[in-house]
Each structure stands twice: as C-alpha cells, then as structure tokens.
Amino acid sequence: MLLFSFAVLLAISAVMAEKNMVRMEPSVNHFTSSKWTRETRINTDDIFVNAVFVMKHCPFKMEKFEKQLLDLSTPSSTNYGKWLKHDAIIDQIAPSEESVKIVTEYVSSFGLATENVRVSRLRDMIHVKMPVKVANAMFNTEFAMFRSVVDRNALLPRITAPYFLPDHVAAKVSLVDDIMRFPSIREPMISTTNQEVAVTGDDEFSSCGAKCSTFTTPDVLEKAYNFNKMSSATTGNSVSVAEFQYQYWDTKDLSAFSDACDVTVDVDTTIGGNTEAICSKVGGCVEALLDIEYIGAITNPVPLTVIYSPTYSLLDWVDQVIAMDEPPLVHSVSYGNDEVQQTSTEYMESCNTQFQVAGTMGLSILFASGDQGVWGRSGVGSTYHPDFPAASPYVTAVGGTNFATKSVIGEESAWDCGGGGFSDTFATPSWQADVVSTYLINAAAAGVLPSSTLFNSTGRAYPDVAALGGQTNPYCVSTSGGSKFGGVAGTSASCPVVAGIFTQLNDQRLAAGQPSLGWLNPFIYANPTCFNDVTDGSMNNCNKGTTGFAAIAGWDPATGFGSPNFECLKAL
Predict the structure, then answer these.
(1) Which structural domain range is residue 523 located in?
(2) Which of the four pLDDT bands, split at 50, 70 and 90, describes residue 279?
C-alpha cells in the first residue's frame, strides 16, 4: 500500500509551486487499491494512457441549469418534458472556446498528433491518447502498471503519486480522469447452476423450464409488477445497458434464454465492440447477460443498445451517451463504488454535471444501489459507506428485494445485501426532503434507526425504488454459450428490470404524443402510491451481527418507495 505522509506531500507541493504547478484533486492521498496489485513502474513509448481532461463549468451557470432541470422534470410544471437539444445546452453551460484552447495547446506542446486529441461535443471533456512517457512529463508524476486481483487479465496504467498541471491550465480543468481511479470489477452472485428441483410455489417459477426451477423468470416479474410483454414499439422509443470490464454478450446465450423463457431478446446496436468468445467460458459474461436478457425480455421490440466502455471510465461512458444525436431514452447501469474508494469530490461533481445534462435531454439514468448493504465494498467500519453513483441526486437508484415467502409472488421484503443509505457528499435534495424527514422521525420512534454516528442524516438518501434482486429466488440466466442456466442475484438484476418498466412507460407516453419521462426522481417522489411499499426486512451487508436500515411504511433507505406497479404508473 502506497500512502504519502503529510510532510512528503508538503515537500512535493512546495517544489511544484516554484514551477507554477498546481496539485490536482488534492484530497486524494491514496494511490493504490486493495483490489489492484502494483507491478512495475513504466516510462516508455509503447504503453499508452487515455486521459480525459474534465473542464470546469461556471458555478453560477450550473446553479441556473440545475433549477431548469428540476423545472423540466417536475410533473406539475408547465415546462414538464420540454427537453433541451445539444445547441441549447452548449449555449448555457459549455466552457468557452478560449478555455478549451488553453488546454489543447498545453497538450499539443508535448508533440502529440492532432488525431490523438479529441474535444467532446459539449466542449467539457478533452480526450487525449499519449505514450506513458509523455503522460509522466505532462502530469509531473509517475505511472505504474496495476493488475486486478479479481480478474488477472485486467491490467491498467495508473499514477503512483499526486499529479500536477500548470496553473493556467489547472484554472480551466476540474480533474484528469482515467489516470488515477481504480474500477471495482463486478463479481456476479451466482447462487446455483442447472438446478432441477420441483417447484413448491407459484407456476411462474417453472416458466423457463426445469433448469430454472425456483428461479425468478420474466413471467414472475410480469405478475409481480403488473405488466405484460410488448407486442409493438412506438417509433422513437429506445433503451440501453452499459457494460464495462470485459462484460460482453453472445447470440447463443440470448437465443437459449429466449427459447427457454418464451421471450425475444435481441441487441439492435452495440457500441464499443463485443467479444463473444469470452462468453463461452464458465461464468463468462454473466453480468452483461443478466442485464441484457432481462431488460430485453421486458422491452422487446424496443430497440436495445449495448454500450461497452473499454476505458473503465464512467465519465467516458456518459460522454458517449450525451454526444449521440439520438441517444437511447433509458439507461440501466449496474456498476458503482463506495464514495470513499479512490473517488475525489471533484470526480463525483463532474459526474453529476454530466447526469444533469443527460436529464435535460430527456434521458433516464438508473443505477444499481450495490450488493454490500450499508457497509459497502469497504466493509464494516466506524461509519456506513454510501455508494456512488447510486447516491448521486441526478440518477435513479434501484435497491433489492426478496419475496417474503420463497417462490410465492406477493409481498416483498428488503434484501439484506442490498445497497442503501445516505450520501456523505451530497445534501438531501428538495424533492425528497419531506419523505426522508418522515422516515427519520418514524424509524426513531419505532426504535429501528441506526445510531446517528453511523450515517449522515442530511445527505442524499437512496435507493429511490427497488425490485427483486435477492438470493431467495435468484434470476434464471443463460450462460456459457447457452450450455448452462444459473441463478444470479444482485441489484444488477433489479436495475434493468425497473429500467425496462420505465421503458414501457415511455412507450405509452410517446404513443400519446408526449415526451419521454427523462430524469425520473421528481416524478417518482410525486407518485409514491404507484409503488409496492416494502415494510419487512433490513439491509446490513449480509452480516447478521451488524445493524442496517430497516424497511418501514413509506420511503426508507432499504427499498426506497418499493417496487413498481406498472398499471398504476401507466394511468399517470
């Protein structure tokens, strides 16, 4: 573990100050990860770094822009659904051309070819590909190679010390992404494979055949959440899932799942490439297949796009989305990390800016709330560890539930491993202030509110909603090139299900000549009665010896408002 002492950091800062250099993201003093092993230092021309200069935005313009987003997204507003186009967003918040010129001239001074420097459509990200030798000099730091302890094929160049920029460049740049942060590689919760047992509950659990007995299926979800398969799609409707970290998909698995469960799952567009051969390996592509098989089962024939980001960068992914002429209207993302894990405030704020932009364009972004309960990926400590991006105010966070009675479709309880809680970074937003205050009062009165020392009660609270994700009835998924069926659990199942249901709702709106739902949270919090309230169970990191947030009547940080009731939402 590489940790710099305060004295060393002061010495480095003093030297850089003499050269008119500014230390970027100064709150970050930890340049490694328990999930990544440092191998060798690198200073060569044959290893490349893909860095993203994230530009600063005027805070006064962003304050006005945020108010506009809330206005456009509030159902009672006369401006509801009047989404913005690219040119209007550029006019309102894009960094100046002069600011972009300052950064690009600095980058070009290192001799990089023009084709290795790309400015984003909104002028707020500058993507630069460069040899690591150039990156060491450009950022006044030192790179090394790091290998994942979870996936030994994953190898990344990352900095081993603080990074710096000249003061005139730093004045225009919030941070440089994809040189410091370590991604958290997803590990699927595979419960059972090729399980063939008699179903003792509802018939829907046998709807994908004996290999999936007792597993959650598309038919189970239809009955639980009161929707039907779609027979047609309205022109203009669209949906997407985001994939990272070698999570690809293959036609054989989609076909096997479709045949077994009597659904149709097709991927219409793949962005970022796809390597199907990986999926034939045991356990290969499980997470991506979970996303695609279930969102496809709910939304087909709505066009489905899979956006694969090879850079491990959330900002790179959302930049791709925003740059599209006609981006998919709903996005399901099953990735995240703890707020405290190698993620600076500047990084989270930059992500929030992009999520706000997406919202003003009429896009809905949903994130899984995590599978490690209140303690997060960091584990049990002195305080809970909230998730990011789930704790962003500008995304919809989806938590996990189980059926209260195994294999019986009906009441749900909170999944004890589901993510939820209160952000340590972002304040409680106005649209959830009342329900959060009510929860804190009622939970305290019932004696189920954890100690105030464990969480930030004034933070953005999540999840917003929930759906089946627990291990009592894991999801039936085709894997290994169609040769196996297994049970997979997690909020990475809950998220595409809820995203699929909102895609169906978008279809209703578009068919009626209405705009898409866009940023969902103001709509959700204005209509809590259209969700199945969960009042049983708690989430505590699957650890019965620790406390967590309990599900109670109304909104709670275990399951939000609960799971969606499609017919009720459709009526709205």
Answers:
(1) 189-195+230-571
(2) confident
